[in-house]
Amino acid sequence: MSERAPDVDVVLAALADPTRRRVLDVIAARGEATATAVASELPVSRQAVVKHLAILDRAGLVTARRLGREVRYAVLLEQVDAAARWMAALADEWDARLQRIKRLAEATGEDDA
Q1: Angle CA(71)–CA(72)–CA(77) in degrees, nearest 5?
Q2: What pLDDT is recorded for position 40?
Q3: pLDDT tens digits for 15-73?
Q4: Residue with more model confidence, 37 or 82
Q5: Which CATH number fits domain 6-112: 3.20.20.10, 1.10.10.10, 3.30.565.10, 1.10.8.60?
Q6: Distance of alpha carbon 16 from alpha carbon 12, whole angstroms
Q7: 74: burial class by Cβ within 10 Å (0-12, 13-18, 19+)?
Q8: What pLDDT is recorded for position 108?
Q9: Domain boundaries in the chain?
Q10: Of residues 2 and 36, which shows the higher confidence score?
Q11: Assuming Cys at both sites, which of 50, 60, 68, 104 could form a disulfide with 79, CB separation 3.0 to 4.6 Å?
Q12: Phi-psi domain of 23 (left: phi exceeds 0; alpha: psi -120 through 50; beta: other)
């Protein structure tokens, strides 16, 4: 198994926080949203949402665009897809290891018979 790309580590760290996952859910449901709109749906302040959005932005999970005085955020899926591919590869590796263990256990069981 190859090492995790640094981006995957950043994405997993950003997604580890349940509030950030909820922020992503709110933005995804709306298509795009301001920090104020996101905060209106969460039990945290607008300032807290802005901090979460900064972390999500650094992880490449959201993009921001200025529209007049507003900053609107949208979800980016590329980094989530990269993390999901890494996790799938890791799962495949573990499945292969477990199959080898199973074959060894079955072969040992036949010897005992």
Answers
A1: 135
A2: 97
A3: 999 999 999 999 999 999 999 999 999 999 999 999 999 999 999 999 999 999 999 99
A4: 37
A5: 1.10.10.10
A6: 6
A7: middle
A8: 85
A9: 6-112
A10: 36
A11: 60
A12: alpha
The whole-angstrom separation of Cα 10 and Cα 35 is 21
pTM confidence score: 0.78
CA distance readout (Å), 56 to 7, 27, 39, 95? 12, 12, 15, 31
Residue positions counted in the chain: 113
Tokens of 62: 């959201």
Q: Single out the residue of 52, 7, 8, 47 nearest to residue 26, CA to CA.
A: 52
83 pLDDT band, cuts 50/70/90, is confident
DSSP letters for 32-98: SB-HHHHHTTSSS-HHHHHHHHHHHHHTTSEEEEEETTEEEEEE--HHHHHHHHHHHHHHHHHHHHH
